[in-house]
Amino acid sequence: MRLDVITIFPEYLAPLRLSLVGKAADRGLLDIRIHDLRAWTRDRHHTVDDTPYGGGPGMVMKPEPWGEALDEILADGPPTDGDGAETAARSDTGPVLVVPTPSGRPFTQEIAAELAERPHLVFAPARYEGIDRRVVEEYAERAEVRELSIGDYVLAGGEAPVLVMVEAVVRLLPGVLGNVESHRDDSFAAGSMAHLLEGPVYTKPPVWRGREVPEILLGGHHGNIARWRRDHALRRTAEHRPDLLRAAPPGSWDRPDLRLLAELGWEPDADGRFGPRPGGMEE
Ligand code: JDQ
After folding, report:
1. 149 - beta bridge partners?
2. What pLDDT is recorded for position 281?
3. pTM for the complete prediction?
């Protein structure tokens, strides 16, 4: 996978050289290139921002440096394969332009998995009040543009979201995780555990500062351990993420689940779901 990041703070992306992502790059699974947007300015002061049309506070990123940077980086990326009838903007093998913004669609595990399938991701973290709108319009004709938010809080720029999204994507690439982690059931992975958060975990010593590891985990009864873990996962999900319980499809719950959920004050409706069905307002 080829991964480009265009930023006015290239040092902010230094953590991509470390840990899991950095190791994946060292092993050749990933080609990461960090670019300074100011390299594509033409004035003496390397200006990247200007005042907003229509007035208002703050500054807006000028379109020209982004245009020059993206033209060069998209031309230099892996080739889009296909029959020529499809454009890079629509092809599964064309580039994806990821633009972090508080007004984007929510970045989810599902989107991370989709991005992990693509050969070329170009990240465009902005600063100030964001990038001139015409840049997204222009590159939507040459790439799949994804405007994404990592959560409902306001950051000062898109660099931290890039670190978050790259880590979520790279750990899904084949060969990046060792066997232990790759066989784990992730809380948000599509599949059997999608509606359950992780329960608590423990390691040695068996007693720390007078606090004991739950006895059931010390015995070897795998059936009882699995049930104990599921109960704690359910309790935690009901407490922290009731929305996930409500979104779980009917048939997600076995008899002990339903007994515990009833104890916690949850009752399924006639269809076996907790609360109103999600959806109905898409697009
Ligand atoms: C930028 C800004 C517009 C604040 C400038 C570029 N989830 C998430 N929170 N915040 C961001 C993403 C984010 C991403 C990129 C950014 C914030 N800002 C500051 C811009 C309105 C408010």
Report:
1. 106
2. 52
3. 0.94
Active site residues: 102, 129, 171, 186
Question: What pLDDT is stored for residue 83 in this prediction?
Answer: 84
Helix, strand or coil, per DSSP, at residue 55: coil
Q: Residue 99 Cα, ligand 1 centroid: separation in angstroms?
A: 10
CA-nearest residue for atom 13, ligand 1, is 101
pLDDT of residue 181: 59
Atom of ligand 1 nearest to the CA of 156: 19
pLDDT digits (tens, 9 = 90+) for 142-188: 999 999 999 999 999 999 999 999 999 999 999 999 866 555 656 55
Nearest CA to ligand 1 atom 8: 102
For ligand 1, residues with CB inside 6 Å are 100-102, 126-127, 129-130, 149-151, 153-158, 161
Which residues neighbour 282 within 8 Å (Cβ) at sequence distance 6 or greater?
none
Per DSSP, the chain holds a count of helices (H) and strands (E) of: 10, 9
In this model, does residue 140 exceed pLDDT 50? Answer: yes
For the chain, the average pLDDT equals 93
Write down all domains in the chain, each with its CATH number in brackets: 2-170 (3.40.1280.10), 207-276 (1.10.1270)
Q: What are phi and psi of 102, to 5 degrees?
A: -65, -15
Using an 8 Å Cβ cutoff, are 98 and 146 in contact? yes
- pLDDT tens digits, 192-240: 458 999 999 999 999 999 999 999 999 999 999 999 999 999 999 999 9
Closest CA to 162 of 19, 1, 34: 34
Q: How far apart are the CA of 209 and the centre of ligand 1, in A?
A: 43
Coil vs helix vs strand at 239? helix
CA distances in angstroms from 167 to 20, 120, 193, listed in the order given: 8, 15, 21
Return the bridge partners of 32, or none: 3
